Description:
Bound molecules: pyridoxal-5'-phosphate
Helix content: 25-40%
Number of helices: 14
Order of helices and strands: HHEHEHEHEHEEEEEHHHHHEEHHEH
Strand order of the largest sheet: 1-9-8-5-4-2-3
Amino acid sequence: MIGFxxxxxxxxxLDYIRDAVEREKLxxxxxxxxxxxxxxxxxxxxxKTLLTQSCTAALEMAALLLDIGPxxxxxxxxxxxxSSANAFALRGAKLIFADSEKDTPNVDxxxxxxxxxxxxxAVVAVHYAGVSCDMKxxxxxxxxxxxxxxxDAAQAIDSFYDxxxxxxxxxxxxxxFHETKNIISGEGGMLVINDERFSSRAEVLWEKGTNRSxxxxxxxxxxxxxxxxxSFLPSEMTAAFLWAQLQELDTIQxxxxxxxxxxLESFAFQVRxxxxxxxxxxxxxSNNAHMFYVVLRSGMERDALMAHLKRNEIQAIFHYIPLHSxxxxxxxxxxxxxxxxxxxxxxxLRLPFYTDLSDPDIDRVINGIHRxxxx
Length: 375
Ligand SMILES: Cc1ncc(COP(=O)(O)O)c(C=O)c1O
């Protein structure tokens, strides 16, 4: 079976984990945590970064930092992972779902514009497949209507909007290092704080509501409970694993782009015949080769191709079920139809995609798809 995902190891992970253990500081915010956080500051110019146990945890921190409450509305795409919504649902916010664009599964900023009210406190920009949302338009709306933008950059490491790194544009941004992402640490994530108004409180929430970070830096002589917070830090072993991955970021990205381009070049016939369409990368966006998907003409055809590939021992999979029509949310949703979100949910097929996917295995996937259309 060619699996959908296979974690890539650089070979240095265990060395750094051993070193973390030998440093005898196993909990969070030690040497490796700080190395990783600084890596992102240096490479992408993020103002402040805090490693978290997951992107979900980073999103929950973002909701806390923005003081989201039951009076607030949060606009987000329906076509996204549940964590983009849950973080704000946990704070009691009213979730307002927006549709996807026609050309990409990203949120349609024109639709966001129509949904803004005086109660809009935040918009979550999910960069699907690592491809940027239209951030210029969104940030213009944010300053005009005074709401915050949280980038859900779970899939968007090393990707750019008009040359600007994703994660550096919104007021806050959240990344994932889950084992399905480009750079991994098993579970793992990071909060980026670009708006300095949130910097010192972010450290407090991160450290269970205490000013322990300031204490660790020697700025105060004892630490105290000063705010709400939770246990958001990953351990040093997780950070050590992540550090091994970050050292190889460029190699990993190069390998993934090769896989992505092999797929891209292989479906010209199906595109010409109108059987499927390929991912669109808008002129303002870069491609970080997070995933490769094709969009079929109908849900039935997508399911048939998925089943055909499975019979050929190839694991290709669908993606999100739109959140506005999910069992948890269905009876709370009073909005209009979100046709593009439904379309992508029904018609996207994600092909096996991982850093070390071999040429023969890529050929098998490509040939499997060709055979489906030739038969
Ligand atoms: C868009 C998006 N947001 C958030 C998450 C949650 O990430 P994590 O598993 O690190 O909590 C994911 C996970 O796949 C995701 O795709």
